[in-house]
Specification:
This is EAL domain-containing protein. It comes from Pelagerythrobacter marinus. The chain is α/β, with parallel strands linked by helices. It is built from eleven helices and eleven strands. An eight-stranded mixed beta barrel has the order 3-4-6-7-8-9-10-11, surrounded by four helices. A two-stranded antiparallel ribbon has the order 1-2. α3 packs parallel to α5. The longest helix has 18 residues. The protein is globular. The N and C termini lie far apart (44 Å). It binds ligand C2E and calcium ion (3 copies). The site of one calcium ion has 4 residues, from loops.
Length: 275
């Protein structure tokens, strides 16, 4: 069977005849990978679109599997979730990323993606704080990104989680906005620090009718709620120009390069004099 992730990572396992075998191999691989430290943080630049300056990095998980090569998170995160291992996996990555980010200039932030399964653990804020304390990393430089699927019906509970994280100084950002089912009522009662517009809207700007109107509406919504906006998935100058015309946004995307290893990040920061 041949498997291709949507980011173009491919591998061949001719002896694996069916999905079940493949899945079992992945599960075994993930267990071994956790023990052997095969999960590696990559980093994507986050840019202030007004002045083009780097403000920080989003950590994106990669699996350096000895058998499969570099595996994308869309492949292994859902499986780690179903195995009940997502918290352990994520915490391993966050520990590494905190050590990496400690070297960066003190005005650069580190942002990490959090699974709904992790976020729904009432002990999550404490677990996270423990990692920050252990690494001696200032919570003010740390941000989490949660998706709309974290926002279950118990709005009061979600709210208290966000408030408790923010009370520690951690920023809580709403990721992939527009793709889920969150209502305006939820958004109004949940104190997010920032809203991230999903790539599907950003990449459609200038190509599909209505896309820039939607992005425009989200930007106004954010302004009205006092929540600044990040646009993800910026790939070309035209999109960048359109976004810059909309207001004070942050942005990310391949236009600034692909997610990088810590070695590449170090080189970049050295060049900028920000290491
Ligand atoms: P996301 O949080 O929406 O992250 C953005 C994804 O879009 C990343 O894919 C990034 O490499 C890709 N991307 C960035 N700029 C562009 C662009 O200009 N064009 C295109 N086509 N793509 C762009 P990646 O790294 O494969 O991550 C996929 C998803 O996996 C992430 O989506 C996030 O939801 C999840 N993920 C990654 N790391 C973690 C993690 O440590 N924990 C959890 N729970 N989820 C993670
Ligand atoms: Ca994200
Ligand atoms: Ca996204
Ligand atoms: Ca410095």
């Amino acid at each position: 069977a041949k498997k291709c992730g949507k980011n173009g990572y491919c591998w061949f396992e001719p002896q694996m005849e069916n999905e079940l075998q493949f899945r079992n191999a992945l599960e075994t691989g993930i267990r071994e990978g956790l023990v052997n430290g095969e999960f590696v943080p990559y980093y994507e630049q986050q840019i202030d679109l007004e002045n083009g300056e780097l403000t920080g990095f989003e950590m994106l998980a990669r699996w350096h599997s000895p058998r499969l090569g570099v595996v994308a998170p869309d492949v292994f995160i859902p499986i780690a979730e179903s195995m009940g291992l997502i918290a352990e996996l994520s915490e391993q990555l966050i520990e590494q990323a905190l050590e990496d980010a400690k070297e960066w200039d003190a005005d650069l932030t580190l942002s990490v993606n959090i699974s709904p399964l992790q976020f729904n653990d009432p002990w999550f804020p404490q677990r996270l704080l423990k990692l920050l304390v252990k690494a001696n990393f200032p919570p003010q430089r740390f941000e989490i990104e949660i998706t709309e699927s974290c926002l279950h019906d118990n709005v009061a509970l979600v709210r208290s989680m966000i408030v408790s994280l923010r009370n520690q100084g951690i920023k809580v950002n709403l990721d992939d906005f527009g793709t889920g089912y969150s209502s305006f009522a939820q958004l109004r009662s949940l104190p997010f620090d920032r809203i991230k517009i999903d790539r599907s809207f950003v990449s459609a700007i200038g190509r599909e009718g209505g896309a820039s109107q939607i992005v425009n509406a989200i930007v106004s919504l954010g302004q009205g709620l006092g929540m600044p906006i990040t646009a993800e998935g910026i790939e070309d100058d035209e999109t960048l120009d359109n976004l810059r015309a909309l207001g004070q946004l942050k942005g990310q995307g391949y236009i600034y390069g692909r997610p990088e290893t810590i070695e590449q990040v170090r080189e970049r920061l050295e060049g900028l004099g920000r290491l």
